[in-house]
């Protein structure tokens, strides 16, 4: 069974843009034509492929088709580039965790030859969840904490990010001094990046061997997260490289001295014969070698 390329492109556009109307504008066709193509594709495959929500999302059945659409699009653009001698319209979707984006990762993008890619579409996603974006076809490659390769992907170890538990001296004096650490941490406010960020909870279990439920502030942006720590809003986990200057200056102190959480990171990308994926992989491995602890 062959899949109509126009229907496949339309399906990917609906998922990318989040609605039939937005997909129609991108493809320069009418919303009615978009709807007809999606219905024809779903009828041909005998499966509902698009959740008619706001935004529109792929169903589980549609994820394999979305992966196919991404792969076909990449290979078609690279084939045309090989003929014409230049890349046109290659926007490469990637998933990277916030701390890697804030640290070692971005130089890798600069190392990819500009003639291989038009633009990067970087999605910020927690390292424990980024593999799902590969699985459902949203991205072509990802920094992930999962060493198990997503079906159809290659995986390579990058190294480890080390996180230290830190707070201001004033915060430590108020909340942590004068009582056992486990007891203090049960009541001391802590800061997390978002609901997916479990680093602080991992440190709690490592130090106390207990499940604690302290007050939690959620600060979902790297810059404000660090600022909140420096202001003394709570304690939290900070990358070793970022924390080092503040620890040396005494503006931050370790909450659990000598305890840390290491997060192994992996690079996963689809198994495609692609010049841009090969070049990006080489650049990512080199940047990780400079910015991460050895695996």
From TrEMBL:
One Pfam family here: LysR_substrate
Domain named HTH lysR-type: residues: 3-59
Residue stretches in coiled coil: none
Record bears the keyword Transmembrane helix: no
Swiss-Prot/TrEMBL keywords: Activator, DNA-binding, Transcription, Transcription regulation
PROSITE patterns the record matches: HTH_LYSR
InterPro entries to which the protein is assigned, alphabetical: ArgP, LTTR, LysR_HTH_N, LysR_subst-bd, WH-like_DNA-bd_sf, WH_DNA-bd_sf
Keyword Heme assigned: no
Tree of life domain: Bacteria
Family annotation (PANTHER family): HTH-TYPE TRANSCRIPTIONAL REGULATOR ARGP, TRANSCRIPTIONAL REGULATOR
Family: Belongs to the LysR transcriptional regulatory family.
Name of protein: LysR family transcriptional regulator ArgP
């Amino acid at each position: 069974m062959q899949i109509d390329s126009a229907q496949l492109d339309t399906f990917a556009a609906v998922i990318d843009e989040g609605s039939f109307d937005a997909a129609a504008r991108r493809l320069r066709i009418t919303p009615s034509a978009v709807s007809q193509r999606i219905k024809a594709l779903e009828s041909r495959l005998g499966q509902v492929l698009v959740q008619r929500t706001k935004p529109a999302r792929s169903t589980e059945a549609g994820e394999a088709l979305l992966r196919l659409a991404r792969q076909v699009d990449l290979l078609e653009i690279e084939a045309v580039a090989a003929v014409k001698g230049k890349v046109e319209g290659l926007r490469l979707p990637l998933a990277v965790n916030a701390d890697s984006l804030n640290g070692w990762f971005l130089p890798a993008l600069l190392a990819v030859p500009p003639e291989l890619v038009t633009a990067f579409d970087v999605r910020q996603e927690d390292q424990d969840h980024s593999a799902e974006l590969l699985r459902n076809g949203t991205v072509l490659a990802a920094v992930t904490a999962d060493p198990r390769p997503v079906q159809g992907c290659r995986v390579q170890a990058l190294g480890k990010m080390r996180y230290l538990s830190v707070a201001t001296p004033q915060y430590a004096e108020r909340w942590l001094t004068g009582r056992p650490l486990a007891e203090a941490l049960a009541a001391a406010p802590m800061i997390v990046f978002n609901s997916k960020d479990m680093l602080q909870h991992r440190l709690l279990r490592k130090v106390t061997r207990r499940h604690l439920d302290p007050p939690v502030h959620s600060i979902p942006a790297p810059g404000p997260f660090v600022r909140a720590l420096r202001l003394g809003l709570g304690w939290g986990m900070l990358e070793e490289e970022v924390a080092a200057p503040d620890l040396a200056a005494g503006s931050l102190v370790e909450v659990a001295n000598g305890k840390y959480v290491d997060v192994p990171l992996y690079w996963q990308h689809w198994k495609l014969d692609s010049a841009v994926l090969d070049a990006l992989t080489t650049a990512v491995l080199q940047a990780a070698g400079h910015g991460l602890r050895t695996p």
